[in-house]
Amino acid sequence: MKATAIIVAAGSGTRLGFDVPKAFVELGGNALLWYSLRTIGAVAAIEEAVITVPPAMESRARSQVHAAGLEIPVKITPGGAERQDSVRIALGMTSVEAELVVVHDAARPFATPAMFAATLAAAERVGGAIAATPLADTLKRVGEVAGHRGDKDRSIIATVAREGLWQAQTPQAFRRGLLMRAHERAALDSTVATDDADLVERLGATVAVVDGSTLNFKITTAADLRLAELLAANPIR
Ligand code: CTP
Ligand code: MG
User: Which atom of ligand 1 approaches the CA of 105 most closely?
Assistant: First the structure.
């Protein structure tokens, strides 16, 4: 099984609100990007990586590749306007020898080598696989309802059945040809999706689900970064 990892790190991190792009924000003495690079270095099947970065951040990304001790060939490219564009650009740079491609958000520093290995193994069997976690909380559909004084109150419209609902994470692994077809179709149809599995699902292909972890959360806000700092200083194994 030969695999290429795509690490998407080209976002600006608007919701985090730092001057520096999110993937280069420091977490426990390392750039956020470093964590994903170190993790893929521990996955035997991954023989190449492509990293998408914001404009003019290529050399800083290259420094992180060295800092993480990554010894596989690594290509670094500016990303696109949206995450999906970044993945499509990176996909076009993956080597034809790669049987599988695994896509991961640099914004998820706590993915494990085991998660990568599990998504790759399942993708080899069925075509695609993602890390995900079952929902733990009760789900409410919420909307604004006019209150008795004519003011707007946020309130519950309905309780949504939670059974069978999972939260999608990355890593997400696919046969390379399948993911390429999914992105080509999305470009033709102007489909915009928030993850790669969605594009593959639209082809009617099977995407398996392997165990992610609540620790594999995406750093989106300043509070997420604070939580990540605590975890980086005190890892839960
Ligand atoms: N990403 C990317 N190219 C883009 C947008 C996002 O490579 N044009 C990457 C981000 O770097 C991140 C992952 O996709 O690792 C998930 O995106 P998100 O968490 O939304 O990060 P940002 O887009 O940077 O954050 P925000 O939406 O708050 O600006
Ligand atoms: Mg974003």
Answer: 15
